[in-house]
Amino acid sequence: MNIDALILGCMHNDPAAQRELYNRFSPKMLPVCYRFAQSREDAEDMLQEGFIKVFMQIHTFENKGAFEGWVRRIIVHTCINLLKKNKRFNESLNLEHANALHVKEETLPSIMQAKQVIECIRLLPIGYRTVLNLYAIEGYSHKEIAEMLDIEESTSRSQYTRSKNMLEAILIKKRIIEKPDMDAGFIASLGTTTN
Amino acid sequence: MYNDELEDFLRHQADDHRMYPSDKLWRNIQLTLHGETRWPALTYISIFIIASLVVSTLLMKPEERMKKNVAVYTTAATAANTETALANRTDAAENSPVQHAYTDKITQSTIEAVNDKVNKEQHSVTNTLSIVHYDSKTNAALIQAKAAINPASIAATVVKAPQLSTQAIAVTVKNSNEELATVPNTGKPASMYFSTFGLMNVSGLKAGGLVQHSLANIDNEEIWRNFPLLNASDIILKKLSKFNFQFYITPSISYRQLTDAKGKAARSYTAIPLSANYKIDINNIVKHTPSIGAEVGFALGYQLNNRFTVKSGLQFNVRQYNIAAYPAAWPPASDDMQPGNETIDALATSANYTQANSSPIVLRNRYYEIAAPIGMDYKVFAGTNGTVTINVAATVQPTYTFDKEPFVITTDYKNYADGSLLMRNWNINSSVEAYISYKLGAFRWQIGPQFRYQHLPTYGGGYPIREHLLDYGVKLGFTKSLN
Questions:
Q1: Cis (ω within 30 of 0) for the bond into B273?
Q2: Is residue A91 part of a domain?
Q3: CB contact under 8 A, B274 and A42
């Protein structure tokens, strides 16, 4: 069944079409939620909320862009809305300096690289992580991020810069990427513990 | 790896990442979008049982079959086609329930009752077919046909024979009248009379005349061996014995099962931290204990065949369970009692119990119900002579709750409030049971375990916390055939 037929079926509230659509997109959307969430359970709840919104608002889809992009935007907005209810998240957005992270080297040696990278992103403080996800992976501008998170655009930029540096350091420590000229002092500030 | 390179790298890695959600996630989504899946099987089972009852009543009613046979065979008789009539008579005898009759004694009163019945039949048949004139052949054919329909009718025909008297029958009539009169004095079973006079001697008829049996023939044992005894009273008994009456009482223990339909979707809005609010099983939060209840009822059964019986009746239920709660000085916020987005002020303000303090008190939720079970009974095993049987049975029970003052838990799981406004009047229950029965005299006594489940939530109106009642009981009862 092609995507247009699926969308049409979902617009008619057809459970079979809804199930097919869910099966097709949920494996891609769950990682999106997982990058924002604190745990897999939280991510599944975000996904659940997101798909409910997708099915309830599918009649507003105007076929002007990729349907997957439309679904993804709804999922991301759902994640952000749920995160914004979290007090710790709101505090984290105004964090000037993240506390030192205790990152173990090679703690994830056996899993695939994609998952390793995602796990590294998840090591970031929640505010940093959110901005990084939105900007670097989801492709939102700082202006859009500022509107979504109710923060200043400059805050988004600074949060992103810090999160990127922190992630880069983590990736180096995990030996996922190499960057010989990385500031040794910054890496040390991550509070390395060695296995 | 700088700036855009890192972002490209991250995006690429993120795009490659796949995760598969758990199955329950789709169920939750479906539940939110389409509500709870209805169980169409309930409807289908109910329709099937009702349809079975109707069809079996229409198709298997002996009276109707007999009437149909009368029409067929008397038509043949009036056509004066003796051979055809005889052939029909033979077929009829094979197909008739009379074929299954067995030797039994009948009393004079039974004979009179049968004569009465057959007189009416004869009158009806005569009027319908406008038989004005009889010759010996048609009389013989008519008698043969009627014998096939109902062996007792031949006796009546003979008794009333003067109205139909002809040469061929006159002697028979005379003899038979004598025989009838002498039956009580012969010391023979009255049914022998019908048997000897059953005109089952087809060859004799084909030869052109009726075989006349005199009193002397009654002593001829060969006759009893050659012709099956056709006992009219059996026909009547068999027809009525398909119905039975059952009375039962079932002491039971009532449990309840709670589910929160809003599930995680509802609670995820309050997730601080997100993970802390999940995996809450409401059944583990409330403190409820089962209590003793009972069912008392009666049922009318109709035996479809040797193993299956359909039954329906009326039943009174008492179901109850206990809840541990704690007196509270404050009512819960009206928000807590919202089914969906509707505020129910009456419930919110009437709440005066909570689970959050010390010194618990016991609240008792008790429901009084009337139910109309419709079900099927299957005989799994029957011992020698059918004295002991093992059966299984299942019923669907439309139920009306006529007295209810339940305490309902609020959606935040913290308080109890008066839930009578939320409670459904009508519900659907179903039960399954297995029992062993023992026939003692006219009654068949039974005992066995029974499980009953309430399919629709106790509270309607979209209230998200759903309560389903479960009863485990021991059913005691007796059944009596209706004569």
A1: yes
A2: no
A3: yes
Q: Judge whether B35 is closer than 8 Å to chain A, CB to CB.
A: no
Distance CA B286, CA A140 (A): 46
Three-state SS for B180-239 is HHHHHHHCCCHHHHHHHCCCCCHHHHHCCCCCCCCHHHHCCHHHHHHCCCCCHHHHHHHH
Amino acid B477: pLDDT = 95
ipTM of the complex: 0.76
In chain B, what are the domains? 62-238 (no CATH), 241-481 (2.40.160.20)
Structural domain total, chain A: 2
pLDDT digits (tens, 9 = 90+) for A143-160: 999 998 888 899 899 989
* Cβ within 8 Å of A, B 266-285: 268-275, 278-279
Q: Which residue has the tokens 């689970």?
A: B355
Question: Testing the interface with A: which of B29, B275, B277 to mutate, by most A Cβ within 10 A?
Answer: B29
Nearest CA in chain A to B269: A82
Structural domain containing residue A12: 1-85
Token look-up 């998200």 returns B464
Nearest in space to B258 (alpha carbons), one of B240, B230, B280, B226: B280
Supply A194's token pair. Answer: 């060695």
Residue stretches of chain A with pLDDT short of 50: 107-111, 192-195
Using the Cβ of A128 and the Cβ atoms of chain B, whether some distance falls under 8 Å is answered with no
Collect all residues of chain A within an 8 Å Cβ-Cβ radius of residue B5.
none
Is the domain of A76 the same as that of A106? no
Q: Give the amino acid at A174.
A: K
DSSP letters, B67-93, are HHHHHHHHHHHHTT-HHHHHHHHHHHH
**Domain membership flag for residue A52:** yes
* Residues A71 and A103 placed together within one structural domain of the fold: no
**Domain boundary at A50, A85, A120, which?**
A85
Nearest residue in A to B268, CA atom: A45
pTM above 0.80, yes or no: no
**Rounded Cα distance, B265 and B280, in Å:** 12
Instruction: Report if residue A92 sits inside a domain.
Output: no
> Is the CB of A42 less than 8 angstroms away from the CB of B265?
no
In terms of DSSP bridges, do strands B361-371 and B353-354 run parallel, antiparallel, or are they unpaired? unpaired
Instruction: Clarify whether residues A56 and A108 are in a common domain.
Output: no
CATH of the domain at A53: 1.10.1740.10
Quick check: bond before B189 cis, omega within 30?
Answer: no
